[in-house]
Amino acid sequence: xxxxxNVDALxxxxxxxxxxxxxxxxxxxxxxxxxxxSDFHPxxxxxxxxxxxHQPDFRDTLYRTEGILQDxxxxxxxxxxxxxxxxxxxxxxxxxxxxSNLAYVMTMLYNPNNCAHEASPVTTxxxxxxxxxxxxxxxxxxxxxxxxxxxxxxxANYEGVWVARNLKTMPLAIAACEKSKDLVEGMTEHQLxxxxxxxxxxxxxxxxxxxxxxxxxxxTARGVGVDAGKLGKFLVPxxxxxxxxxxxxxxxxxxEHIVPLDVDGxxxxxxxxxxxxxxxxxxxxxxxxxxxxxxxxxxxxxxDAVHEVIKLRQExxxxxxxxxxxxxxxAYGGYVRSMFLDDxxxxxxxxxxxxxxxxxxxxxxxxxxxKRAVYDAFAAxxxxxxxxxxxxxxxxxxxxxxxxAMKDKRIVDLISYHAAYVFEEAGDDNEEDKQVVLGxxxxxxxxxxxxxxxxxxxxxxxxxxVSGYGHVIGRGIVTADWFAKKLATAEPFVIDxxxxxxxxxxxxxxxxxxxxxxxxxxxxxxxxxxxxxRIYELCSYATGRTYTKDFLTSSTSLSEEExxxxxxxxxxxxxxxxxxxxxxxSVYILRSAVMTHFLRDEIRFNNYWNxxxxxxxxxxxxxxxxxxxxxxxxxxx
Length: 637
Prior knowledge:
One of its GO terms (biological process) is carboxylic acid metabolic process. There is one protein chain. This protein is α/β, with parallel strands linked by helices and 637 residues long. The protein has two domains: 125-418 and 433-466, Type I PLP-dependent aspartate aminotransferase-like (Major domain) (Aspartate Aminotransferase, domain 2, 3-Layer(aba) Sandwich); 473-636, no CATH class. It is built from 23 helices and twelve strands. The chain has helices at residues 19-39, 50-53, 56-79, 98-108, 123-137, 153-176, 189-192, 197-210, 213-217, 221-224, 228-231, 243-250, 271-284, 306-320, 350-360, 372-380, 449-461, 469-489, 525-538, 560-563, 566-573, 578-584, 602-636; strands at residues 146-150, 233-237, 258-261, 288-294, 325-330, 386-389, 402-406, 493-495, 498-504, 512-519, 554-559, 586-593. β9 (498-504) and β10 form a beta hairpin. The longest helix is centred in the C-terminal third of the chain and has 35 residues, at 602-636. The model is unreliable at 419-433 (pLDDT under 50).
């Protein structure tokens, strides 16, 4: 079935090309729900009679409802951002899967709340199934791991820190309890704070056998609070999402305990500097609460060397007897791991992978992807303790759908709560059949079952392997490669005798392409930044001119404060002096996530690029006209 999947049949399309099917299925979704209502105890008499429905106030209420919806539609059509269009290359948004939209609407009408199984008997099971899908994609043992849907990557990252914190304090709690301290007898506090995740979870099994797990758990951070300084440092790349700062705040660990890890010229965590920082902490005897790798940085799309982090942890365990928690923030790039799995969900060897890409036309000749370092990083994700992933990014599922996966589901016991009036146990007396109870084991409370249905349905139609999502995601990767190459070799734009050159920040690891324009001969970094900021303003929804522009993108600023000296590498490559960098300290860039799958055709893409050159020429001309008018006004004044 999957080998017959047509990617164009998955989406409504930029011009609503699949509107007939979509409308039929939308009508089916609504009709089925109405039939369900009608057929529930058909012996019950209708409570609204035709006489009631023809009352003036009844009709007036319906007319006002219609008016409000017409008003909403006008607002949405006027100012919404057209993620579905190839003209939009900006944030991590694109057209969404028809099946997920339809599944969401169909389920939304039933209004299930996945906080409790009683309130969501269908969608709770769908969420657990979708979680299994994600665990399998990441290479986890689905019988021992667990994943659930969150509102987004921010909450998923919170949960990563949450479980890391409670896990880190469990050995201390065991040592503090008279009934369990024999389990860690003879261990120093330093040893207790540097245990492997599995060793700690094995101890919790013993606590459960003794019937004292909850008593000891009350002595962990969840019960007695936390001495953040004692737990050590949390190592996060400079390319981090801001949610990590918020997580340390919310969980009482303090942002001062974050140690920023420098990034290299590709905006991946600098491996050598990471090792230096880690070994320095080890030599000082400072515990490491956790370390984060980013798989798909939000600003550059870079893929951290997860394999080097796993290797580093093993070295620390062997050399210093000290371990630490590893979390992968793959909110952006997590679904890309599906591209490495064969039809049996097995991670493919590199050479076999490339051969499969060529045979199936996933990645054509001339496009080098993945780079070997990127391949190794995705291979190592299965060794991480937990992983954040957002179906609403590269899963092409509508908001809000984040997720977090945990390698060992026993860790959930360290954070779970149970309130009898809301939660009920799942499964029967067979321990293997028992599922983690959603509401009592997550950070959020009430949550839409419709989201679970959307993710579940998407996974059923588009397998999480090279035959499914591989074809969808691969289209964006190929287009991004072509786009980056065009930018890197583009002839200068000449307007009124002034020449402008466009160049990419780097060749992408994934499908995020960053680039800037520079006026040739103008070596002012401040002028460069103003030029690119103005281009962004003219290509942004923020101008209120979404429908009058031919190209929409996003932007960001890579600053010394946030990234250290790494952005200086690009600034120097564009001809800016050391003095310019030291004075300005940041470079403003245009940022394009090339997620569209509609340009994966060389003729279509080349036409697109030629049109885009015209758009860029028009933008630069508009900016020059603005500058000339300002000069005339200044002269006149």
